[in-house]
Specification:
Elements (H helix, E strand, L loop, with lengths): L8 E9 L4 H15 L3 E7 L7 E9 L16 E6 L2 H6 L4 E10 L6 H4 L9 H6 L4 E5 L1 H8 L5 H10 L6 H11 L5 H14 L2
Parallel strand pairs: 1-4, 4-5, 5-6
Antiparallel strand pairs: 1-3, 2-3
């Protein structure tokens, strides 16, 4: 089946601000799909991450082992899932989501440079405006859940857990991927973070 075949290839766009752990999230997702035995391509696009700029990762994978992914790039209107680590980033990249797609978004707000310098204000009611665009929105306070699991740094794994409810992978595959991806001393904490996100994402 070609990449143009119906539902042959799924696309997940992961967006956030530098330092939030988006790249680990993309590696976990890519590794999980490899465990499933399907073709997967990951492409990282680094913005001004050191200054809190946008960091974007594309993950595209075949629905079955027979489906091939020929390009890692996600065009506007192609993403099945938009995983956003920050509310403004969800709004910024919403045009890349296909009609009826799913946004999994952390309700945390991080001021971009124009807001920090006083040149602009953080948009009000930003998630409400996202919800008005006819997409499914799962909004959760991933930072609070990560802290409950033991570390604010586990925000990315909380979001992976929430997203996992919307992808066709067994829970066991996600958990095994986390075990093989994070340092051993952090495995239990990250599994707890995944669990909190997974149950929230129902």
């Amino acid at each position: 089946m070609s990449e143009k075949g119906k539902n042959a290839v799924k696309s997940v766009m992961i967006v956030g601000v530098g330092g939030q752990g988006t790249l680990l999230a993309s590696r976990v997702l890519g590794s999980a799909m490899l465990q499933k035995g399907v073709d997967v391509k990951v492409s990282e696009v680094h913005g001004m991450s050191q200054r809190g700029g946008s960091v974007v990762t594309y993950v595209r994978y075949g629905e079955t082992p027979e489906d091939r992914v020929y390009s890692p790039v996600i065009e506007r209107g192609e993403a099945d899932v938009l995983l956003a680590f920050e509310a403004l980033e969800a709004a910024r990249f919403l045009p890349y989501l296909k009609k009826g797609g799913t946004v999994v978004v952390n309700t945390q707000q991080m001021d971009p440079m124009p807001v920090i310098t006083g040149a602009a204000q953080y948009p009000r009611d930003i998630l409400e405006k996202v919800k008005e665009q006819g997409v499914h929105v799962l909004a959760l306070d991933a930072l609070a859940l990560a802290e409950k699991a033991g570390s604010a740094k586990a925000v990315n794994v909380v979001l992976i857990g929430a997203m996992a409810q919307h992808l066709s992978l067994p829970r066991e595959v996600w958990e095994e991927t986390i075990r093989s991806t994070v340092p051993e001393k952090f495995i239990n904490m990250n599994l707890q973070a995944f669990e909190l996100g997974f149950t929230t994402g129902v």
